[in-house]
């Protein structure tokens, strides 16, 4: 169409050529083609980009358009690229009364509905009025090329034409154009390649991942009977013993395959364990006996290629370790009415659970790493212990004795004397502090020693005190 497409800041229109097929590619068993069309078919008022996916027998698998049915935006001069996943990129020129002639593109992912493309976007917005009106019209070149990136066959490169600012006064032949190239990336897992496997650490953990556009590598084994494309992790066992890997916490309903290997390259792996559809679910779970210090390679795969939201998974692992108590509960003495607390520290995988006991009987509700009694009574006296448990085993702490005293009153005993000293023993609540006071008149008491019960105190004779009396207070 001669001088058909509009541009801003000018009444001069741009030639859109005709509706012939501009590019055909064969990819993934289909023929893909694109061309400019003019709508409506009689007395057209706009141009659009039309694309096709055809079977080799001519059957139309899908067809669609990049079109603005309001007639504001015109699209023309398309090129098409298809990657290994059947993602499709269209590169084209766009025109409008509110923009200069621009380089644009639109993406269709393999999981978009049939016939759909994402909304058009600028690759490079036009910068000036284009005016090179000759006998054949204000010609706009068909400089449009789109290809998948040869390095990963996933992302795309496209090169498109756009208008540059005119030179000097805006007159016929002052318009200029240029081409702009760019890469349109699509999402791929960072750990798609074996050499880019992600590190997992510790005896227990979990991580989120995706198999969206994951691929098979040359030499990669089939994980069970089928493989669409895997992602890789590596984990070094911290200790000997059984370990469990699973995708059971995944919420996307992805039908996962799970495989564990040893080996240093994707083409030289030894299978350790595999699983699909654990316990009637679409998720996977496997168990194997790990050797301390050995690095294991974990592949998560899928039975079918699915959409972005259905490609996510949760990978969890645990190497159970029976609990070990690192700090035992300690005995204590308490005056009735005061509080008492016992505590224990333990490690284990998975995280241990606790059950406190008094005189070997379970205490209801006492299931934390510490146990407190807010107001101790005499009948709380006894031996306290805690059983620490996980599904790898259990261990019982040593007993911690709780002594309960009616009061903190101290007694003085074990008196002895020499020619120049006098010694006594203070006995109160064990572990509590007491002060020894002295007087000569029973009215003025002077502190002479402070210590933790039980303890001895020796008073050295002095000519200042012909006699002296003592007492001990909590």
Give an overview of the whole structure.
- The protein is mainly beta and 474 residues long.
- 0% of the residues lie in helices and 53% in strands.
- It is built from no helices and 40 strands.
- Strands 26, 29, 30, 32, 33 and 34 form a six-stranded mixed sheet that branches.
- A hairpin with a 6-residue loop joins strand 4 and strand 5.
- The radius of gyration is 42 Å and the shape is elongated.
- The N and C termini lie far apart (106 Å).
- The model has no long low-confidence stretch (mean pLDDT 93).
Q: What is the approximate shape?
A: elongated
- Low-pLDDT parts are none
Termini distance?
Answer: 106 Å
Give the strand content. over 45%
> How many helices does DSSP assign?
0
Short description:
This protein is mainly beta and 474 residues long. It has strands spanning 5-7, 10-14, 21-27, 30-39, 46-54, 60-66, 73-82, 88-96, 99-108, 121-124, 133-134, 137-138, 145-148, 156-164, 176-184, 198-200, 204-210, 231-236, 241-246, 256-265, 268-276, 285-290, 295-302, 312-318, 321-327, 332-335, 340-343, 345-349, 353-358, 361-362, 370-373, 382-390, 393-396, 400-405, 411-417, 421-427, 433-439, 446-452, 455-460, 469-473. It is elongated.
Which secondary structure elements does this structure contain, and how are they paired or packed?
Layout: E1 5-7, E2 10-14, E3 21-27, E4 30-39, E5 46-54, E6 60-66, E7 73-82, E8 88-96, E9 99-108, E10 121-124, E11 133-134, E12 137-138, E13 145-148, E14 156-164, E15 176-184, E16 198-200, E17 204-210, E18 231-236, E19 241-246, E20 256-265, E21 268-276, E22 285-290, E23 295-302, E24 312-318, E25 321-327, E26 332-335, E27 340-343, E28 345-349, E29 353-358, E30 361-362, E31 370-373, E32 382-390, E33 393-396, E34 400-405, E35 411-417, E36 421-427, E37 433-439, E38 446-452, E39 455-460, E40 469-473
Parallel strand pairs: 16-18, 26-34
Antiparallel strand pairs: 1-2, 3-4, 4-5, 5-6, 7-8, 8-9, 9-10, 11-12, 13-14, 14-15, 17-24, 18-23, 19-22, 19-24, 20-21, 20-23, 25-28, 27-31, 29-30, 29-32, 32-33, 32-34, 35-36, 36-39, 37-38, 37-40
């Amino acid at each position: 169409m001669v001088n058909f497409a509009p541009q801003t800041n000018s009444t001069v229109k741009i030639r859109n050529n005709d509706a012939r097929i501009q590019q055909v590619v064969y990819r993934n068993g289909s023929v893909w083609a694109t061309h400019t069309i003019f709508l409506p078919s009689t007395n057209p008022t706009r141009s659009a980009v039309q694309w096709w996916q055809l079977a080799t027998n001519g059957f139309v698998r899908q067809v669609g358009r990049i079109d603005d049915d309001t007639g504001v935006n015109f699209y023309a001069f398309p090129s098409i690229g298809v990657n290994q996943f059947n993602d499709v990129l269209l590169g084209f020129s766009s025109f409008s009364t509110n923009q200069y002639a621009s380089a644009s593109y639109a993406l269709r992912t393999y999981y978009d509905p049939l016939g759909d493309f994402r909304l058009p976007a600028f690759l490079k917005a036009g910068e000036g009025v284009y005016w090179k009106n000759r006998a054949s019209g204000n010609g706009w070149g068909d400089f449009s090329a789109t290809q998948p990136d040869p390095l990963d066959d996933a992302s795309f490169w496209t090169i498109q034409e756009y208008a540059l600012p005119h030179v000097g006064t805006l007159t016929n032949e002052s318009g200029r154009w240029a081409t702009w190239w760019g890469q349109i990336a699509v999402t791929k897992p960072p750990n798609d390649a074996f050499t880019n496997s992600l590190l997992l650490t510790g005896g227990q953990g979990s991580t989120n991942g995706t198999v969206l556009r994951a691929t098979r590598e040359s030499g990669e084994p089939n994980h069970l009977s089928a493989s669409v494309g895997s992602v890789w992790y590596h984990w070094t066992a911290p200790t000997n013993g059984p370990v469990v890997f699973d995708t059971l916490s995944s919420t996307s309903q992805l039908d996962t395959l799970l495989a564990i290997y040893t080996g240093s390259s994707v083409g030289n792996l030894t299978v350790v364990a595999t699983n699909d559809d654990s316990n009637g679910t679409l998720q996977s779970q496997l168990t194997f006996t790990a050797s301390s210090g050995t690095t294991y390679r974990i592949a998560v795969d899928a039975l079918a290629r699915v959409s972005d939201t259905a490609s996510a998974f949760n990978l969890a692992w645990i190497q159970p370790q029976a609990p070990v108590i690192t700090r035992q509960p300690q005995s204590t003495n308490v005056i009735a009415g005061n509080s008492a607390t016992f505590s224990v520290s333990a490690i284990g995988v998975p995280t241990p659970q606790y059950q406190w006991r008094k005189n070997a009987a379970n205490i209801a509700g006492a299931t934390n790493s510490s146990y407190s009694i807010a107001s101790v009574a005499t009948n709380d006296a006894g031996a306290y212990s805690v059983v620490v448990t996980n599904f790898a085993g259990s261990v019982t702490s040593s007993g911690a004795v709780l002594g309960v005293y009616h009061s903190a009153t101290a007694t003085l005993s074990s008196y002895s004397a020499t020619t120049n000293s006098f010694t006594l023993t203070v006995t109160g609540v064990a572990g509590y502090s007491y002060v020894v006071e002295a007087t000569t008149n029973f009215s003025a008491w002077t502190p002479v020693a402070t210590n933790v019960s039980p303890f001895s105190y020796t008073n050295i004779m002095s000519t200042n005190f012909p006699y002296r009396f003592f007492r001990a207070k909590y």
